[in-house]
Amino acid sequence: MLDVSGGSKSRVHFSMIRQTVPAVQLAQVKDSDSLFTRLGVQRLPIEEQSMFKLLLLLPLGAAVVVFMRVIIGLKTSGTFMPVLIALAFLQTSLVAGLTSFVLIVAAGLALRSYLSRLTLLLVSRIATLIVLVVFMISAFSIIGYQLGFSTGMTITFFPMIIIAWTIERMSILWEEDGPSEVVRQGGGSLLVAVLAYLMMQMPIFVHLTFNFPELNLVLLACILAMGQYTGYKLSELRRFRAMDDL
Amino acid sequence: MTHAWVSVRRLKEFGMLGMNCRNVDFINRYNPRRLFPLVDNKLKTKLLAQEFDVPTPALKFVVREQHEISHIERELAGLESFALKPAKGSGGKGILVIVGRQGEQFVRSSGALMDITDIRRHMSNILAGLYSLGGSADVAIIEDLIAFDDCFAGYSHEGVPDIRIIVFRGYPVMAMLRLATAASDGKANLHQGAVGVGLTLDTGRCLNAAQFGRRIKLHPDTGRPLSDIHIAGWRDILLLASQCYEMTGLGYIGTDIVLDKNAGPQLLELNARPGLAIQITNGRGLLPRLRHIESMTLNRRFRTEQRVDYAMRQFAEAEPPAQAVE
Fold it and tell me: Given CB 3.0 to 4.6 Å as the disulfide criterion, which of A64, A142, B40, B94 pairs with B89?
């Protein structure tokens, strides 16, 4: 029912979100008002629910990172940077997110090499990078929009401060260990990010983590178990290969 | 013929220590977090070493604030040669070695020339935390240069060779010599391409050698056979390493020692998370030795000399069996 009298420039907003609800809960929601139903994530306003959908996927991403680092032994730049990238991918779609991320970091590295000639203090160097990253992302979004890529706008979801730090770390890595190490660690981070993304976008996991948030405790148990693992990493079977020819 | 992979069973036979096992069973268990700053900060290590009469290159002065850099040439005036280091640097990053002067210019160990502006920029970067873990603010240390011992002539490309000894609960358990190469750009850092020479714990002789994780016999730049290496005064070096346990209280440390022509063995720095590559250069795993020390209950009663003698006896290399002659 909409009733307006003498109003001008009035606006009407409708927010909608597709939501899945466990059958039992659906039955209960109709007639009960107990503490448990009040505490459910589904009772939150819709904007917060969509945020929670992402938030509850984070443990899955974190578990992927722990697995790749502890069991496989992959090097990533910045421990949980891959999870944040994966989170951004969820909003941009994989290909668009991947290309824009690589473009932004590459452009940032080029600008950073100019900054290193200015001999700035570290804090102001990072701050400068943040400003530049904001400009770059705006530019990419506008250009993308004008070219008709609707995904351009969603690049803004990238965690900018993390990107600025990534650029700074990569450029130091470049100066000290050469471009090959940059490609290796950057590639490792992206590989973990893509894997985390592939897990986090699977409908089954989205469904389970949102509707049964307590399942994240199972992930927590896995993470704790991996934290106690003292066996060899897969990468060490290669690293110690010289032991075979004694 | 080196295979691309090695089996878990084979690694277990050797008792190779893996990264996860090192972190959980040794670093977390024997290195209390509150003691880490003693070794992560080279200035603290140096002051501690002086207190404990452990020989270390003499500290000239410390630069703590950006404004001191503008008139740094006055401080440097009396120094012909020196080493400039970030106190919290890791893996040899940010270390600048000046071996002499040429007029206004400074001569680096690589032969490259630097002027005072370059040195100022380098100091400013150090103070800003470019080389420190996590980018936290740092101080710059200026110390005496090592006059390195002639016994390594022909074994090192530019850089100073150093001896890494792993000390577990005060017992030296494994040792290697690290030699800089052209590939490592004069740095004694294994992952950058330095040669690691595993040393016998009882005599300080070459046991095995490796570069980039592969076995080698000759120094890649000079072609000298690495098997001839024999370090004189070995017991004194082990004593110096073993003393670092009392000095820091850390149970599992890597000690980096250099040999000075005049002053003998000097403690360069300590590491609370020593790397695993020492096992490749030795061709031996660390685990059996660590577990042996761990199983000893009375080790606290021992003095440094007793611990070193025990380790030299216990971890002595058996003579290779003589070839039967037909």
Answer: B94
